[in-house]
Write a structure and sequence with these properties.
homopentamer, 304 residues, alpha/beta, 14 helices, 10 strands, globular
Chain lengths: 304, 304, 304, 304, 304
Amino acid sequence: MTITPAVKAILDKYESDNPGVKGNLARILMNGRLGGTGKLIILPVDQGFEHGPARSFAVNPEAYDPHYHYQIAIDAGLSAYAAPLGMLEAGAGTFAGQIPTILKCNSSNSWASSANQALTGGVDDALRLGCSAIGFTIYPGSEDVFDMMEEIKELSAEAKSVGLPTVLWSYPRGGNLPKSGELALDVGAYAAHIAALMGAHIIKVKLPSDHIEQKEAKPAYEGTDWSAQSDRVRHVVQSCFNGRRIVVFSGGAAKGEDAVYQDARDIRDGGGNGSIIGRNTFQRSRPDALAMLDKLVNIYKNAE
Amino acid sequence: MTITPAVKAILDKYESDNPGVKGNLARILMNGRLGGTGKLIILPVDQGFEHGPARSFAVNPEAYDPHYHYQIAIDAGLSAYAAPLGMLEAGAGTFAGQIPTILKCNSSNSWASSANQALTGGVDDALRLGCSAIGFTIYPGSEDVFDMMEEIKELSAEAKSVGLPTVLWSYPRGGNLPKSGELALDVGAYAAHIAALMGAHIIKVKLPSDHIEQKEAKPAYEGTDWSAQSDRVRHVVQSCFNGRRIVVFSGGAAKGEDAVYQDARDIRDGGGNGSIIGRNTFQRSRPDALAMLDKLVNIYKNAE
Amino acid sequence: MTITPAVKAILDKYESDNPGVKGNLARILMNGRLGGTGKLIILPVDQGFEHGPARSFAVNPEAYDPHYHYQIAIDAGLSAYAAPLGMLEAGAGTFAGQIPTILKCNSSNSWASSANQALTGGVDDALRLGCSAIGFTIYPGSEDVFDMMEEIKELSAEAKSVGLPTVLWSYPRGGNLPKSGELALDVGAYAAHIAALMGAHIIKVKLPSDHIEQKEAKPAYEGTDWSAQSDRVRHVVQSCFNGRRIVVFSGGAAKGEDAVYQDARDIRDGGGNGSIIGRNTFQRSRPDALAMLDKLVNIYKNAE
Amino acid sequence: MTITPAVKAILDKYESDNPGVKGNLARILMNGRLGGTGKLIILPVDQGFEHGPARSFAVNPEAYDPHYHYQIAIDAGLSAYAAPLGMLEAGAGTFAGQIPTILKCNSSNSWASSANQALTGGVDDALRLGCSAIGFTIYPGSEDVFDMMEEIKELSAEAKSVGLPTVLWSYPRGGNLPKSGELALDVGAYAAHIAALMGAHIIKVKLPSDHIEQKEAKPAYEGTDWSAQSDRVRHVVQSCFNGRRIVVFSGGAAKGEDAVYQDARDIRDGGGNGSIIGRNTFQRSRPDALAMLDKLVNIYKNAE
Amino acid sequence: MTITPAVKAILDKYESDNPGVKGNLARILMNGRLGGTGKLIILPVDQGFEHGPARSFAVNPEAYDPHYHYQIAIDAGLSAYAAPLGMLEAGAGTFAGQIPTILKCNSSNSWASSANQALTGGVDDALRLGCSAIGFTIYPGSEDVFDMMEEIKELSAEAKSVGLPTVLWSYPRGGNLPKSGELALDVGAYAAHIAALMGAHIIKVKLPSDHIEQKEAKPAYEGTDWSAQSDRVRHVVQSCFNGRRIVVFSGGAAKGEDAVYQDARDIRDGGGNGSIIGRNTFQRSRPDALAMLDKLVNIYKNAE
């Protein structure tokens, strides 16, 4: 497998990491149909933890089976598959070596009374399951965010030492941050920047709206037209060390295909590295999901 | 002891586990009168911790003696016996090798001011006592559930490494979850799914009612008739990785025999793996309990 | 599985061991066609280490496959199967839960320049592979025997703490001990006694001849007729704490069936617990081996 | 990357290993031009340690540069590249993710006064450098072989726990073994069998001659014609758990092309998994080496 | 301090090292009058350990004072100062931040009965004393070299993880290597290569003679004229990964100035990185030493 110049350019930006971390980033960036383009699509399936099984899978009951997700990620030629411990354990033997996996190491649930998550997996688990990265969520804004940051500081340091990169979900939530501000451009860019500052290798954020939430931040955004989503993506990428870190955007709740495609075009045009797209995948029938992922791959290949 | 195809099919689903874990699961699944059927009945005796001795045993004073429970589990041909540290220590020598045991590693009590439990046993204890698994309770919904999840994450990883599977009691309780919702179908399936995601090998939940508690979950359940208990069991099994994990259902408070038998038939018909049945066993006289367990075994053997 | 009085009587003699050790002894003593009799037949396959593959298996090429040995031990209804690390790893998943296994933790080879062995497995391996015991060889007489004894002291202590019994191969060899004395009655009884003194749970020695090797020991043996092999067995059993420890005898090189049967009758009549019989099993064709093992089982059952 | 049935069949034989180990074996078996065939060619460059730089590289001075070896392994489409610590460190960043690497963890040199090696790398090094396996040499026959075996026992157990397989070079040498016997068929098969018993995942031995060295082994080889090299390969494969372990054969000193090709055909026809071919690669000019490796790949693909 | 292209090119070759290691290498390479040239002169003062104080310092009694060496290294504008623990402790406070230091971590003495050294310093010492690297000696050829290699393997791994590079003195000595062969070209190149393979960052060897010691190596050296010392230097540099590692040459016993200068010119012309020059420094008077070092600096600057 010869690394393409596009991927080589990305790897070179991780200049403090050991070859193990670079090798695992390369494994993700060279896998699947987007392999070598510098773009990536990750399938995350942790919504069962967040929302429960029926809300996640009843619409497409095949998706109750962990093998379903491994298989669709492989068949669609995706870059990687991310899931919590039990989901990976239920397929890691059968699919060993077939798709890079990311162990999601913390998880919340619908009853959480604080904006926090529980540690549910670790670096030892990631190694024995053959994962290519660990994943973790922080909630900037939460009263518990310092605890979450300290957890990922420890976990990420351990992971780096054994050659595993960190994918950081950075979702503003909780504390004094109103619901209305969670998707604000300034807030999203800030959350992405925090992830970069924490030493994450791949940063996962939501697509931001054009709302500016923080009063103190408004002057910095005034005088620019933020109505184009691709421009907002570009600002988030800029906030991740001016493009020195991989940034992927989540798809959010299941929605119409056209909206999904437009999001991908905007991510691509704004310089984002790709999509991490769960519910919009597994809450469609398998043929519909494969058709949608095929089109997304083509968008990222600039073929559509 | 030749493994039956039914048991082999179950073991093959634990594809990330070492032969030690598989061997202990096989020990449980091949033991007693249901050995080889893929069904199991576990006797749990931790109610003394939960409710105190008199509430638990006064109705059948022989049951104050730990040997009583070992003996009835053996005589009834059950699959395994689960109890806290002291209960096992009081009989583990006498009954060594006669019945697989499960060390219940955390416990609550009647005065608990939070929905949490104390760690009261560990993997070292389980090994020195010759146990075939560890047991643990989490309370999804509780404000302390993240702590409980982090405890079992550590304990379960240690157990897996030395060949011991984990039985996870997942009982919704506490926090914002109203008492009325604890047995709701959506809540029970969610709790079972969380246990699977945590990497549990055997999942223990309560038989759910047809109530749907969570507003957000209602759409996922609408349009289906949930009045049959066997259908609700089937949904819980589906929520445990579509049947890739063993699921057993608890009997709850002592009740009439017919209700106990109907529960077992519904578990069986819904594809559940069996019952974990404590108070309904030891709060009956020994002859009555043996007769009831005999009938339950026959139900799971499809003989009644 | 109800323990028989015969097995219970044996377990009671291991009065300082924890229930984990007793449980694993019970697993071996209750397994297979001799289960419950207090007698046992163990299949050991470590001759590949000692003599190389062709000398061990060329006569019956199916035996090159590790699954062959697991399967014949199961099909013949033996008590346990003992082998080095790689041999167990190559079958432990397929046969998990079907036959108690013993991890042989040290091994020699044909080129060894000293009467010693290398550590090739450990307690962690035994746990992850689901073994019921560890096995180890010492060479009383060797200049290295103190090192070997110190190794098993450490290993056995660790094993006991996690519920694993120790099977100790005690084979006089090396140092000032002449080849002619290795099978002497006084030497064999002494070697067995050393194994008991080391804290072994199951002692494996060779059937002794009626030769008395040590000048100083001769007076103690004079005046007794040692011509009957069963009497010599009885003396070895006596030397293992007067029957408080399980003693099994090895079959040595492949030989005629009648000699094998006579050995078993003498072991039985002398109060030995059974045979550990490798080459005489796997160097016969599978039908012949099964027929021979069937007859041996019947001998130990007093049926022949 | 979908695993082929040929590779899946191999992975299934490693039934006691965790998904991490299986994934790394899959990485090697799916890489390069032989990816998916179940055959493999490994480039090992540790001769600088063994023989010094000039004896190794003067004939083709480009080979003094560690990048040269990475690049030729990639350009020739080989399965993996094996080298000592410093050699890997000098290229692991540049070539991260481009070729599976094997960290050779012990090494000898020309002045060694005993048949032994020094530990020069460890599992932590392998992880930080992103290696897919560790490599290690034992010298069956050596007076130090017990020490070497105990070193790899520890190292291999650690590697397995973090998902790294072990490649074991098993080269008879030293002690009472005469030089003339090092390549004997009985000795080579025995060395391969020892590697399998030690729990190695990939076994590397030399192509054996038809000489039988050990007097005791002669009867086991008599009556069979061992003049065909492919039959000798078949016997070595049989000695590695009847084909349950991957076996590769080393090329030895640089020699004529036709001899190299005939060796490969014999390895293929005898059921071996491939070649590990160092000096015959880097002691040729780059064009000649690429042409030779191209032909070897075709031989293993049954195309020549 | 802007890194020069010459130094940047060197640092880029340490592609598996973390920024801490690179930073310390840069500190040495950018210090003093040769800073930025890619050349370096190191002052080592460990001869007190090797030969005793009087043999080392009586000729220039100021040199008994550890401050003397720090001061002359600073005043002469050298790259770094290397010494054993006590020597550094006696000046590290006074001269903190004034000159990069290298803690020599093992040492021999005149009474040593084997070709080995004692560990006399560690990574913790190096950190608390503010050192820029650790130093270590191995004796290729010695019967103890495997032990020495295993010591530096451990020490170097620890050092790398905390950002400290390793300077490896590789001096052939002991075992079957005759005194006459210690300076042979093949032997010196081999020793340098071993240091590179061990993962050393800076390799220190002696200037080799044109003698070829090893019979097996002779063919690789035949047909080339090795009479020019600069060509021999070039071969040693080639043997250190074709120039991917820094190589410095030691001056040996005190000798005439002209010989010292010619050595430096040959090192420079052969592509070596510089000199490590102890006795030729401190066994001269301070003015003489400063004058000599000034001239050496100019030679490496190509100014003489």
